[in-house]
Amino acid sequence: MGSTGAATAAGQTGTGSGPVPLRRNLRFQTLWIGTTASTLGVSVADVAYPLTILAMTGSPARAGLFAAVQAIGMLAAGLPAGALADRYDSRTIVIVAEAARAAVTVAVVMALVSGWLSLPLLLGAAALLGIGQAVKGAAGLLLARSVVAPEQLTRALTQDEVRINGAALAGPAIGGALYGVHALAHALPFVFTAGSFLLALAAAALMALVPGQAPGRPRPAATPDRAATPDGAATPDGAPSACQPGGMLAGLRTLWDQPVLRTATLLIMFVNTIGAGLELVIIVILRHQAVPPGTIGLALGLGAAGGLAGAPLVSVLHRLRPGVLLLGMGALDVAMLALLAVPFGPWWVAGLMFTVMLGVPAIRVLVDILVIRQAPPEQRGRVIAALMTLIGLGVPVGLAGCGLLLQYLPAQAAMLTLAVVEAAGVAYGSTRRELWQARWPADHLA
């Protein structure tokens, strides 16, 4: 890696021979604990909100509408959040965002306990939570980079996969277990989520007290990381003018000007659109099989264990070309969707989800290597936000579409429809020559 400024920002050298190991990097570990708590809270809420709306209205479409509104909030705030993260202290942004998300969740708890909870109130909360997620997401990634040396980023991302997939594993089970049979017990998952946001806030605040350089937005003076980039797979030093400071849209131009990045991002956007409402479809299928909420949450959570098991496979899967890896994961996802239509119960669902999740850590690290690390440091927040926004563009459509499919089709037919549509998108991606010819940067397995 060629960004000496990023190494300075990490500021965690011990004896002068190299950076402090991640396990002894107290700033990174403090941030990691807080972000883990926040991610776990979101995972719990992702089960509690649809269960609550289904109990209130009996309508899968309205349950899907909540998630769609939340996704719209994230998209609307995405690009401004990236510009904000590039301009202001990332730790302060994280603290404010977590405080706001905690306040919104507490308001939901109070409305639920007092009997005033309504669909319009929940939709308002969804929009605010989506905005908070976008703001926290861009700033949080920059904050992590400010306390980790460049040569440790891949290892840090692997540890982050433990956070992401561990939360996805435990969250649905906790959410389903906390969700009770009467109104007061229904509030417990939201109390848990509010507490998790407050813990994340406290961790970000405590980073200033942990020994080491004060955390915040790194301000490197060096050029972007140099890597071998045949076929336009990444942005080298001397990037085109579209990558230079250019306002809120600079990140979008950076992604769109690279053929490989453009095609890969479009493919990921399509797959993400189809998968956006997958959990809702699974919940409805299992409810039709009289599976109790706790077991539904456990089945969804066990599926996420595949992400944990897949973290050690990152270096193995990255021996495939980037395009081959993306297309292979898309094909596996199509097969998984088709098989989920077979009503074999919650453990069948858990096994299929586990299998497809094995490759997800490799895809997330792929995105970091080919996109985020190659962005000019002074624009990295905008590139992160642009990527998150583009990938999330289809989420509202996917969520609302899944709700409508469930409203008018049997759940199994809805799942098969998703499989057919995704198969068409993956087939189109397989016709793009630039995707097949893409190569990794020369040092990506270093």
Structure description:
This protein is mainly alpha-helical and 446 residues long. It has a single domain (21-437), classed as Up-down Bundle (Growth Hormone, Chain: A). Helices cover 71% and strands 0% of the residues. The chain has 20 helices and no strands. The N and C termini lie close together (10 Å).
Please name the defining characteristics of this protein.
446 residues; mainly alpha
Question: Care to give the gist of this entry?
Answer:
Helix content is 71%, strand content 0%.
Question: Which helices and strands, and how do they pair?
Answer:
Blueprint: H1 4-10, H2 26-57, H3 60-87, H4 90-114, H5 119-145, H6 153-178, H7 183-186, H8 188-206, H9 250-256, H10 259-275, H11 278-288, H12 293-310, H13 314-317, H14 322-340, H15 346-357, H16 360-370, H17 380-392, H18 395-408, H19 411-429, H20 433-437
Helix pairs in contact: 2-3, 2-5, 2-6, 2-8, 3-5, 3-17, 3-18, 4-5, 4-8, 5-17, 6-12, 9-17, 10-14, 10-17, 10-18, 10-19, 11-18, 11-19, 12-15, 14-15, 14-19
Topology pattern, helix = H, strand = E: HHHHHHHHHHHHHHHHHHHH
Q: Give the total of beta strands.
A: 0
Total domains, how many? 1
* CATH H-level homologous superfamily name: MFS general substrate transporter like domains
User: Termini, distance in Å?
Assistant: 10 Å
Which of globular, elongated, flat, extended, rod-shaped describes the shape? Answer: globular
The number of helices is 20
